[in-house]
Amino acid sequence: MISKTHQQMLRGALGGALLWSCGAHATSYMNLYGVFDTGIEYVSHASTSGGLFRVPSLTGEVPSRWGMRGVEDLGGNLSAVFTLESGFNPNNGTLGQGGRLFGRQAFVGLQSDYGLVSFGRQYNMTTWALADANVLGPNIYSISSLDPYLAVARSDNTVAYKGTFRGLTVGATYSFGRDAGGTGNTPGQGTCFGSIPGHTSTCSQWTAMLKYDAAHFGLAFAYDVQHGGPGAAVSYFDGTPSTPLTGEMDKDVHTTVNGYATWGALKIGGGWIGRYVTTEGGAPEGRYDMFFANASYTFTPAFQVDGQLVRIVNTHQNTRATLAVLRGTYSLSKRTAVYLQSGYLINSAHASYTVSVGGGGTTPPQGATQLGVMAGMKTSF
């Protein structure tokens, strides 16, 4: 179901249907996979003029994408792996991630009993740490509405390691230039190309994760540090831009602590996400604390309901918001589902968070409440 398939999608394996042999070994293969998710959305108080209807571009239940994933058995429990994944906007057919051909993932690596070492554009540990506790995933109404970076955190020029040992997963990434494409379309990252002579930390990023999964519960911790540089993104804390991270020692830091548990058809999860931005001199430019709790219940093999409650408190900008989300999904087959969902956002007097992920012309006036409703359909291959 959805809460389970979200993690499968992050691994680039959802709905793989086309399989070619890439060698003599039975474990060598290549998959072509993808998901198409779109619908119609209504957002109230999208501006001072009122609400609007639209076909959203970024996501519905999940972002639309297609990709290729391959494994070659090298012998001795060692395999070469690769993933190329392209995001696209279903409302107009354009490429996502600022027009990149493989803007979601593009990496190659070696997989062994000791874990995976990979190189390229890939998800960092903030994404993996949230994969199980956040049952809504990168939904159009979710924790990502209040911080778009959390939708699917990734970076360019990245060396990554992730391995699982008796339920304990350890992982780390280091990026030499977190947005070398210079598109400015990766949430929270901007056009930050990479290190320059004499300034090796410019535009770098590192993340680390510890995660433990048992039969019916799991816990995760992640730490994520982005360094600034020329052209780096503007930080968003209350729906409006604040300080650009232009200095090498400027930092944008996310800390994630969460957990989940399952009882039969019920799954619950929740956690805390803390974020702060500091300039080169060490002065704080922004800080928030976000708390979320959610649950998912599978009533029948075809019908599932998910809900989430999120609270964000930013004392530095004196802004706060509360978001409630309810989503129902009915599977027409193993590959195709329809859904109806709604999010209701309450902003404090000086806040202008938006209920819909990424904003995109739906930012409300300060202090306004906002309702989002979306009816959609997704199919995978």
Automatic annotation (TrEMBL):
It comes from the Bacteria. The keyword Iron-sulfur does not apply. One of its GO terms (biological process) is monoatomic ion transport. Gene3D superfamilies: Porin (2.40.160.10). Its main location: membrane. Pfam families: Porin_4. It is found in: Cell outer membrane. Residues 20-348 form the Porin domain. Keywords: Cell outer membrane, Ion transport, Membrane, Porin, Signal, Transmembrane, Transmembrane beta strand, Transport. It is a multi-pass membrane protein. Residues 1-26 form the signal peptide. Homotrimer. This is Porin. It comes from Pandoraea aquatica. The lineage of its organism: Bacteria, Pseudomonadati, Pseudomonadota, Betaproteobacteria, Burkholderiales.
